[in-house]
Amino acid sequence: MNTETFRIFCDVVHYQSFSRGAEVNNVSQSAATQSVHRLEKQLGVKLLERSKRPFVLTPEGKICYEGFREILETYDSVVSRVQAAKTQGGTIRVAAIYSVGLHDMSRCMREFMTEDPKTKIRLEFLHPEKVYQAVLNSEADVGVVSYPTASAELNVIPLRSEEMVVVTPYDHPLAKERSIPIEQLEGLDYVAFDAGLPIRRETDRYMRQHNVRVNVVTEFDNIQTIKQAIEVGMGVAILPAPSVLDDIAAQRLAAVPLSTPKITRPLGVIYRRRKIFSSATTRFIEMLGGALVKSNALGSDVSDDVVLDEKDGAFKIEPRA
Q: Residues 269-304: pLDDT tens digits?
């Protein structure tokens, strides 16, 4: 048994296909099939139930799959650290939800690569469930998600908590308010996140707690599309304040703080337990946390022409000094 055999077996299981598992390992399908057969012979157990389509793992196969994945992850991490120590380079694979924002992530990546130009960062924006899958399947080293959830396989590093605000068209009557109670949204047309998303569950729970009912006119799975719907007058929404700073500065949208009790959205990094980070990955996570905390403060990361001041609970646009 060796790491190549473990990798072929894990890829065959992951893709539920001998041909696909063989392809990603640059071997023939016959070689992949023989590799799994040899593994079963050495262990003296059947790992795959081939009579079903697609095949399924036997109880022994599940134990092997989980164990071999951990071995491969540790092995790959050690190899990565050795190579990084030798060449001061490597690649950090990051999966993030759309609403973290390309601007925040891009700024952090630029700063990091300025300090460490030999290390590359591969960033992919995904649906929340896909971020978790990418990390669990070792397709990403870390994931950036909202309402991060630890599990038997995942650890969480908290990054920041974002205040949620009521976002309206720029000329909406509520835009003139310094702050409003959630009850003021009663009966209004509302642009919601897709049902099932963590942020939708939390905002729905918040409104239920205050006996507020809104008229959901449409649903989307990302903040950018929600903001576009608000801008054309389809309704209002509750969104993280940092996500609308540029829109406020450009006078496309307005944001009104909710009076106490407020609602926040936590952001965090998820990664597989027993994951061995390279020093570059550790530095990137530290830098990402610092960058997101900075951009969480209103006025800290908007255009060069304006600042956003939150005095007395109101978002106000003023010229930069």
A: 999 887 777 778 888 888 887 655 554 443 333 333
What 3-state class would DSSP assign to 245?
helix
> Which ranges in 88-222 belong to alpha helices (H)?
102-115, 128-136, 198-209
Q: How many residues are there in the chain?
A: 321
Inter-residue contact 103 to 41 (CB < 8 Å): no
From 272, 278, 285, 274, select the one nearest 90 (Cα to Cα): 278
Query: Per-residue DSSP letters for 196-222?
Result: TSHHHHHHHHHHHHTT---EEEEEESS
In the chain, which stretches have pLDDT less than 50? 295-321
> CA–CA distance from 218 to each of 99, 195, 214, 242 (Å)?
18, 11, 12, 23
CATH architecture observed for domain 162-265: 3-Layer(aba) Sandwich (3.40)
| Domain chopping of the chain, boundaries | 3-83, 90-159+267-296, 162-265
DSSP string over 45-77: S--EETTSSS-EE-HHHHHHHHHHHHHHHHHHH
